[in-house]
Specification:
Oligomer: single chain
Order of helices and strands: HHHHHEHEHHEEEHEEEHEEH
Distance between the termini: 61 Å
Bound molecules: adenosine-5'-diphosphate, (diaminomethyl-methyl-amino)-acetic acid
Structural class: alpha+beta
Strand order of the largest sheet: 2-3-4-5-1-8-10-9
Number of helices: 11
Mean pLDDT: 97
Largest sheet: 8 strands, antiparallel
Low-confidence stretches: none
Number of strands: 10
C-alpha cells in the first residue's frame, strides 16, 4: 500500500516542502534503513510542524544515502554544498583571528560555540532505542567525569533533577528545554527524560548536553566577546573527549548529525548581542547577516524571538567550511553589525 503525499500549507517555506516532489516521494515513501528507520519518520517533523526551517531528520548514517534524493538538495540549499564538494576540518585555534569585537562590552553579552557529535556504531537520536540511549549516556558521562583542570566537572542526569534547578539552568541558557515540538515529532523526545543530562564545569564555561538533538553537544561559553578563548577551550574539550569516545564521521559529509543543518563541522558559533537600533529595520539587519552567511535567532534559542533588541547571531554554514571559517564568518558579521549599530 502506498502512503499519501503530505499536505503542506500554502505559506509553508521549509526545505522539506521545497524539495519533496511527488516523484521523490513515490521513490522514497516505503524506504527503510537497515536499522529500521523509515522515510516517513525522516519527514514527520516537517509534516507535523509546517513552520520548520528544514523539517527532516536522519535516524542513522544510512539515512544520508538511502534518502539522498531528498536530503542532497536540502543539504546543497542550506550549506551551498554540492555533491562534488568535499568537506575539510581546521580546529587549530592558532589559525583563528577574531579579537574581541566589543572590548568595551557595549553590545555583546555572551559568546557560545558548540559542536554536535554522535557515537560511532550507534543510530542517530531519532533512531535510538532506550537501552542504546542509556548506554551512550553511561559511556559519555564516564568519559566526561575523567576530565581535569578547567574542564573538570560533574554530570547531572535529567532523571531526578530538581525542577527548580532544571528551570534555572534553562533560564540561564545552559540547558535545553523539554517538550520541543520539532524534536517531539522527530522521535527525539522518546522515553523522556531517561538517558538525557548535562555535564558542566564549576564556572559553567564548558558544558556537554547528552542525548538532546545530537548525542553530544559540546559547548564552550562565557560572558563577553572573547571568541578566541571560547574557541580554544572548545577545541581542548573536543580533543580530550575524543580520546575515549569515537564519533560518527563521513568522508564527504564530515561529522554526521541528526539534522542536516549541522553536518560537517556541526558547529554553531554565536553571540548574544544588543542591537536596539539596527533591529528596528529588519530588512537592513538581514541584509548584513545574509552577506556574512549568518543566522538570526531569538535569545531562547532556535524558534524563539529576540527580546529587548537582543538577538542570537551565529554562522549558518557548517558543511564545506572549516571550524575556523565558521567562527571567522561570525566574527566578520558581528564586526559589521556593531559598525552599523554605531552609525545609527
Ligand atoms: P543549539 O545552539 O544547540 O543549536 P539553541 O539555538 O536551541 O541550540 O540554543 C540553546 C541554548 O543556548 C539557548 O538557551 C540559547 O539561548 C543559548 N545560547 C545560544 N547562544 C548563546 C550565547 N551566545 N550566549 C548565551 N547563551 C546562548
Ligand atoms: N536543527 C533543527 N532543530 N531545525 C533546523 C529544525 C527545523 O526548523 O527544521
Amino acid at each position: 500500500m502506498s502512503a499519501t503525499f503530505p499536505k503542506f500549507d500554502s505559506d509553508c517555506s521549509s526545505l522539506l516542502c521545497r524539495y519533496l516532489s511527488q516523484q521523490t516521494f513515490s521513490v522514497l515513501h516505503d524506504k527503510v534503513t537497515a536499522s529500521g528507520y523509515t522515510f516517513l519518520q525522516a519527514i514527520n517533523s516537517g509534516v507535523v510542524n509546517q513552520d520548520s526551517g528544514v523539517g527532516v531528520y536522519a535516524g542513522d548514517a544510512e539515512s544520508y544515502t538511502l534518502f539522498a534524493p531528498l536530503f542532497d538538495p536540502i543539504i546543497a540549499d542550506y550549506h551551498g554544498f554540492s555533491s562534488t564538494d568535499t568537506h575539510c576540518s581546521n580546529l587549530n585555534p592558532e589559525k583563528l583571528f577574531a579579537p574581541d569585537p566589543d572590548p568595551d562590552a557595549k553590545y555583546i553579552l555572551s559568546t557560545r560555540i558548540r559542536v554536535g557529535r554522535n557515537v560511532a556504531g550507534m543510530p542517530l537520536g531519532p533512531g535510538l532505542a532506550a537501552p542504546q540511549r542509556k548506554s551512550i549516556e553511561a559511556q559519555v558521562a564516564k568519559s566526561l567525569t575523567n576530565l581535569s583542570g578547567e574542564l573538570a566537572g560533574n554530570y547531572y542526569s535529567l532523571t531526578g533533577m530538581d525542577e527548580t534547578v532544571r528551570n534555572q539552568l534553562i533560564a540561564d541558557h545552559f540547558l535545553f528545554k523539554a517538550g520541543d515540538r520539532f524534536l517531539e515529532a522527530a522521535g527525539l523526545n522518546r522515553d523522556w527524560p531517561a538517558g538525557r543530562g548535562i555535564f558542566h564545569n564549576l564556572q559553567k564555561t564548558f558544558l556537554v548536553w547528552v542525548n538532546e538533538e545530537d548525542q553530544l553537544r559540546i559547548i564552550s561559553m562565557q560572558q563577553g566577546g572573547d571568541l578566541e578563548v571560547v574557541f580554544a577551550r572548545l577545541v581542548k574539550a573536543i580533543r580530550e573527549i575524543e580520546k575515549s569516545v569515537s564519533f560518527l564521521f563521513d568522508a564527504r559529509l564530515g561529522y554526521l548529525t541528526s539534522c542536516p543543518t549541522n553536518l560537517g563541522t556541526a558547529m554553531r558559533a554565536s553571540v548574544h548581542i544588543r542591537l536596539p537600533k539596527l533591529s528596528l529595520d529588519m530588512v537592513d539587519f538581514k541584509r548584513i547577516t545574509d552577506l556574512h552567511h549568518l543566522q538570526i535567532r531569538g535569545i531562547h534559542g532556535e524558534h524563539s524571538e529576540g527580546e529587548g533588541g537582543i538577538f542570537d547571531i551565529s554562522n549558518k554554514r557548517r558543511l564545506g567550511v572549516t571550524e575556523v571559517e565558521c567562527v571567522q564568518d561570525m566574527y566578520a558579521g558581528v564586526v559589521a553589525l556593531i559598525q552599523q549599530e554605531k552609525v545609527l
